[in-house]
Design brief:
By secondary structure, the protein is α/β, with parallel strands linked by helices. It has seven helices and eight strands. Strand 6, helix 6 and strand 7 form a beta-alpha-beta unit. The longest helix has 22 residues. It is globular, with a radius of gyration of 18 Å.
Length: 234
């Protein structure tokens, strides 16, 4: 049995009275989840909609609690870190992590960044040792597979694309993924939303088909660890 952690970050719902306002990233992710659960109904499924229910932003008091030795934390400090502990436990338990995100102002939504800020935490998801020289941070988790689903209004953010230097969403997610314990990444992108033309309709349809294909591929596999930092662009 495996555990799938599903994190959505769009502020929009999957279905709205005006279909033009439906979340594209969430609908693509849902195609993955539906396929996964059809093939692996016994698996544990953990869901977080951080777009609708965002985690708290970290504060000076939060940082103070993190850097206070655990045995010396006050009840108030423990309470302040309770959500962080819960979110980290969900990541630690997951074998497969699915993150869907729209591109807001060429990067990730603030709500998703807040989720990462609660999780990327010293002595929980990484440790720090200056004896490692210029690379003192070392992730503590490993062996997980990440599926990144993104949607954008423009297009050409891929390597070699006409907006390659403008897209900070997928690169940021790839950078932070190591602190989730991710070894293998699949990326699915939907583009052209602002154009609303046939290119957009085809992009969404292709992204949903690929989400289904990846879910089918992974759901029937043994989820054996792959080579570190492998990225599958699909």
């Amino acid at each position: 049995m495996s555990t799938l952690l599903h994190v959505d970050s769009s502020v929009r719902a999957v279905n709205n009275p005006n279909p033009d306002h439906d979340s594209i990233s969430k609908s693509i992710a849902l195609r993955f989840v539906d396929t996964w659960r059809q093939n692996r109904p016994e698996d544990e499924y953990i869901y977080r909609d951080v777009g609708v229910n965002p985690p708290d932003f970290i504060t000076q008091d939060w940082i103070g609690a993190v850097f206070t030795p655990e045995e010396k934390r006050t009840p108030a400090q423990k309470e302040r870190l309770a959500l962080s502990d819960e979110l980290i436990a969900e990541v630690a338990a997951a074998d497969v992590i699915l993150i869907s995100s729209p591109m807001y102002n060429y990067g990730m939504p603030a709500q998703l960044k807040a989720w990462f800020d609660q999780i990327v935490r010293i002595n929980k998801t990484f440790d720090f040792d200056l004896s490692r020289g210029d690379f003192p941070l070392q992730p503590l988790l490993s062996g997980k597979t990440l599926i990144i689903v993104t949607s954008s209004g423009e297009f050409g953010f891929e390597k070699g694309g006409i907006r390659e230097d403008l897209g900070h969403l997928a690169p940021h997610l790839r950078t932070l993924s190591k602190y989730l314990g991710v070894d293998t990444i699949y990326e699915i992108a939907s583009e052209y939303q602002e154009f609303g033309d046939e290119r957009h309709r085809m992009s969404v349809a292709n992204a949903k088909d690929r989400a289904e294909s990846i879910a089918l591929e992974l759901s029937i596999s043994t989820l054996a660890p792959s080579s570190k930092n492998e990225v599958a662009n699909v």
